[in-house]
Write a structure and sequence with these properties.
Layout lengths: L1 H7 L13 H22 L12 H14 L7 H8 L9
């Protein structure tokens, strides 16, 4: 029974769980994404070296592509953007 209940819990915690507004949650997600990308950039070698190694840009592109592939199949970016472009209280900024 416990495992069945756990399976019903969403994998994504909304900001409401922590008392955050949807706008604060969006900002948190942006900050987290920026930190991940900054970390990826910071751990890459700063100098170009000879050899067949990937460039910093190629590594970041590959990691970003892999991340995009992990999005759920029903996530269609242009549809989400279209829905968010409507002026509503929660997405006006």
């Amino acid at each position: 029974d416990v495992f069945d209940y756990i399976d019903t819990i969403p994998n994504y915690d909304s900001g409401k769980v922590f008392g955050l507004s949807p706008l604060a949650n969006d900002r948190y997600q942006e900050d987290t994404t920026r930190k991940v990308l900054d970390t990826i950039l910071s751990i890459q070698p700063k100098e170009a070296r000879g050899g067949a190694g990937e460039t910093r840009e190629a590594v970041i592109y590959r990691l970003a592509t892999e991340t995009l592939e992990k999005l759920p199949p029903d996530y269609i970016a242009h549809e989400v953007k279209e829905r968010l472009s409507k002026l509503e209280p929660m997405n006006i900024f």
